[in-house]
Structure formats: structure tokens, C-alpha cells
């Protein structure tokens, strides 16, 4: 065991309150591409290359940009929605999600995630704050919950979109394919519960996540590039209230202790080492 892992395990072991703050990197080994990794980091395989290299933020990740793109390049919008949805529909939790679920059973733990993929809950975690919403939830335009979709329903939508990418009239057919998200016509306009750039973070998740970060003794940050604000302020909020910050990421990350490596490899090691000497 490395010195860093030993030291990080001691911090987790002695913490009364823990926050686990996760980003796209924790789900990379479940087959969901991250947003910002360089394409070269993925051996040139375009299916796993960083997302925003292929779909620029200004064209696809704001509501005005998306509406403009739907008029100007409808087939690309269908492709974008399919690329967000298909990997999530197929994904299963990996050992990092399971280790965090185990930690939550043993210790007072709040999970704050930027991910929309529902994999923490699929691994059994309960106290999960979703800052950017969830692709499974359907809400009204003022974000009141309407219904939830399951992974099988998302999978069916993804398969329809795959067919539409190649066919005629992409946008009307896409709207029909995703009608369970939109509640078209008879029930008024609904939306998937997703935070795009320029939207406020989900509530009460953000307020709860920030309060947990301010009250914790230890924050474990996993697979977050730290460039998306205000979510990236959570480690800072924890640190300025005296908590120790541990980062798990293959890329150098600012923290008290950086554990270099993949989430699925390092997170179970950290949790096992932290809980091993518990009576
Ligand atoms: P990001 O793409 O900006 O950064 C990913 C981070 O994960 C990087 O630091 C990278 O080095 C690291 N990483 C890559 N592979 C890893 C691995 N195997 N193990 C551990 N770390 C790994 O992601 P972010 O910081 O979460 O950016 C925020 C945005 O990404 C959010 O808006 C979030 O909604 C969105 N997002 C979510 C999903 C999802 O739901 N799974 C997928 C893609 C993007």
C-alpha cells in the first residue's frame, strides 16, 4: 500500500462525516464518456473521446444553442441526444459506485454528484444529491416532478434515435421518439430534469450538498475536472471549514492527498483500507 493511500485511509477512518463528490470520471469505467478528456487519452477511439470535443458547448449544451442547432443541423442534434443517452441506458455501476455504497452503509456519508446517470442509486446508495439532475426524471418547466423512466425505457428511446439518425425528417421523428420525456400535447410540455450551461443547479440538492460539504471532516473527490462552477466550489467549502480533501483521478488534481489512478481501481482500495481496522 502506498503512503498516500495509507494516509488517505486514516483520514476516512477518523472522519465522523464524509462527503463523496463525484464527476463524469467515476462513470468512465461503466462505459460513459467524460465530457472533457482529450481524444488522445482514449486511443483515438471516437466512441469514447471527450464529449465537448465532438459537440461544442455553445451549440449543444445551452437551451438557445440547442434550439438553434435543431434548425440548422437537425441530424447532429439527434446524434447529440443519442450520444448522451445510449451509453447511460447501457451502463451498470462499477466497483467505485459499489465501494461508495458500502461506505455509506458503514459511515455517515453524503454523495454529491454532477452525473445524471443514476449509477450511485443503482449501486444501492441512498443519500445522493444530484446537482445536474437526472436523465431518468421528467419534470415540468418549473422543475416539478412528473414521472420517472427506467433504464429499459431509456434503452428503447436510444434504439429509436439510432434509427432516426440515418432516416428522413430527423427532428419531428426525434420529438416523437422522446415523447415520454416531453409529455407532448395532451399533458403540456415536460422536460428531462437536466441542468444545461446557464441553468441554476438543482434544488434542494445544491443546498444540501453545500451544507454537507461545510459540515464534513473529509471530502473524497472522484473523477471531477473541477472546471464546472459552482459545483467545483464544494471541495473549497469543505477545506475552508477544516475538512481534508482526497482526490481520486488519473490526472493531477489539487487536494490534500491525490490518489493517482482510475476510480474503479482506487476507490475500493481506499474504502477497504479505511474500514479494515473498524471493530
Ligand atoms: P469532466 O469530463 O470535466 O472531467 C472528468 C474527470 O474525470 C477528469 O478530471 C478526468 O481526468 C477524470 N477521469 C477520467 N477517467 C477517469 C477514471 N477512469 N477514473 C477517475 N477519474 C477519471 O467531468 P466533470 O468534472 O464531471 O464535469 C462536469 C460535467 O460532466 C457535469 O456537467 C456532468 O453533468 C457531466 N457529465 C456527466 C456524465 C454522467 O452522468 N456520467 C457524463 C459526462 C459528463
Q: What's the structural blueprint in terms of helices and strands?
A:
Elements: H1 3-14, E1 17-22, H2 51-54, H3 57-60, H4 63-72, H5 74-90, H6 95-106, E2 108-113, H7 119-122, E3 128-130, E4 133-139, E5 145-148, H8 151-164, H9 170-177, H10 179-182, E6 191-194, H11 205-215, E7 218-222, H12 233-240, E8 244-249, E9 257-260, H13 263-275
Parallel strand pairs: 1-2, 1-7, 2-3, 7-8, 8-9
Antiparallel strand pairs: 4-5, 4-6
Helix pairs in contact: 1-13, 4-5, 5-8, 6-13, 8-9, 11-12
The protein binds nicotinamide-adenine-dinucleotide.
Nicotinamide-adenine-dinucleotide (NAD) binds next to β8.
Structural features, described:
- There is one protein chain.
- The protein is α/β, with parallel strands linked by helices and 279 residues long.
- It has 2 domains: 1-31 and 93-132 and 201-279, Rossmann fold, CATH 3.40.50; 33-90 and 135-194, no CATH class.
- Helices cover 43% and strands 16% of the residues.
- It is built from 13 helices and 9 strands.
- Strands 3-2-1-7-8-9 form a 6-stranded parallel beta sheet, sandwiched between helices.
- α4 crosses α5 (74-90), α6 runs parallel beside α13 (263-275) and α8 packs antiparallel against α9 (170-177).
- The two termini are 21 Å apart.
- Mean pLDDT is 89; it is low at 39-48.
